[in-house]
Design a protein that fits this description.
The chain is mainly alpha-helical and 390 residues long. It has 17 helices and no strands. Helix 1 runs antiparallel to helix 8, helix 1 crosses helix 11 and helix 4 runs antiparallel to helix 8. The longest helix is centred in the first third of the chain and has 29 residues.
Length: 390
């Protein structure tokens, strides 16, 4: 299987697993008798690991030129770690399993994105049309498991997630993939260039705040619907509708990049995040809550694609994988750790409606910071470096 086909298949299978775990792992833990605070703590381990481990993996890979091999090893290990959730274990044992699962899977997307940009070269605006297969996988899994969960119980979360991760590992092992690391490059100089980029540092700070605000939604949106008397089937549809909007953005991404500046796209995505969290609290109507999820096309689709493009453009080519891991560490690591953890703690003290409104204010602050500190960025990223690759 060629490189682009391999990455399409990997994104589909990997994000199908995320389509199982992101909406429904909290329900799986709740049905095992865990408190909301314990669930928030367990889910906070995912970003806690992601804040450090993937970055360490990519730095090591770039120094040794072994990104492709580490990617395949981590994909296989993730399957084993995830299936360990089936063990009948207390909360502290589940925490150990979650830590192992998070550590092994954490470098997969930074490596996959780095390989994608390496493969696409000067055609990096086509990244969205590779990554869209991940969104399609998410939709299929979220809808399927949402209906199956009501009929068959929480065991389908382990079954669906395990099968999807197994397929992702098989694709990674069998497909042809590029080695994204460079040779003959002084990494110390490249890191110096990266650390002196003030605009990039401010962008990461704004990203942290906006992504921090998403902890309430990621941890408690499905449970919020359940408290409102809305079943898991509607929850699965709501999550899938959001990702469907993300799909539309990814398919249109080359056109968006040609017509709008990257800075403007990021500002719209950040601002829509504040609107989305506030809107969730304004209705208890199932159709209305599902409709609000279409904002995911802006809050994740536009924001994520613009962010990984900006990182690939602003990061020295020798640090392509580490640049993606740095973004993941801030957006999904540090921000997720505090966002999920704080959401878990506050959910025991304030109503979920109040929590969503506080999240909206945090996202608004991140948007203001970005607008105040950002500088114009080319709409279409510059061609990739012509330095030799392994």
């Amino acid at each position: 299987m060629g490189g682009e086909r391999t990455l399409r298949a990997f994104y589909f299978c990997y994000f199908a697993a995320i389509g199982v775990t992101e909406p429904f792992l909290p329900v799986f833990f709740r049905d095992r008798g865990l408190s909301l605070a314990a669930i928030g703590g367990l889910l906070a381990l995912l970003p806690a690991i992601q804040a450090t481990v993937p970055f360490a993996f990519t730095v090591w890979a770039e120094a040794r030129g072994i990104a492709r091999g580490l990617f395949r090893t981590a994909a296989a290990g993730t399957v084993v770690a995830f299936l360990a959730f089936a063990l009948p274990a207390p909360a502290w044992t589940l925490a150990a399993v979650m830590a192992a699962y998070a550590a092994i899977k954490s470098p997969l997307i930074p490596f996959a994105n780095a390989m994608a940009f390496s493969l696409l070269g000067a055609g990096r605006e086509r990244f969205g049309r590779l990554r869209v297969f991940g969104s399609l996988g998410y939709i299929v899994a979220a809808v399927t498991v949402g209906f199956a969960l009501e009929a068959a119980g929480a065991g389908v979360v382990l079954l669906g997630g395990g099968l999807a991760l197994l397929a992702a590992a098989g694709v990674a092992a069998a497909g042809r993939l590029p080695e994204p690391t460079l040779k003959g490059v002084h990494l110390r100089e490249a890191w110096g260039d990266l650390l002196r980029n003030r605009a990039l540092c401010w962008f990461l700070a704004a990203t942290f705040l906006v992504r921090l605000s998403g902890g309430t939604h990621l941890t408690f949106f499905t449970l919020y619907l359940r408290e409102a008397g809305i079943g898991e089937a509607v929850a699965g549809v709501a999550w899938a509708v959001g990702v469907a909007a993300e799909v539309a953005v990814m398919l249109a991404w080359p056109l968006l990049l040609r017509r709008f500046p990257l800075r403007g796209l990021l500002a719209v995505g950040f601002g829509a995040t504040a609107v989305r969290w506030a809107a969730v609290t304004l209705t208890a109507n199932p159709a209305g809550l599902v409709l609000i999820q279409t904002l995911h096309g802006l809050t994740f689709g536009v924001t994520y694609l613009a962010s990984v493009h900006l990182m690939d453009t602003e990061t020295p080519p020798a640090l392509r994988a580490s640049g993606q891991a740095l973004y993941a560490a801030v957006a999904f690591g540090l921000a997720g750790l505090l966002g999920n953890g704080l959401a878990g703690l506050l959910a025991e003290r304030v109503a979920l409606t109040t929590l969503f409104r506080l999240s909206s204010l945090v996202a608004l602050l991140g948007t203001a910071l970005y607008l105040a500190t950002s500088r114009p960025v080319a709409a279409v990223p510059a061609p990739a470096s012509s330095l030799s690759r392994r």
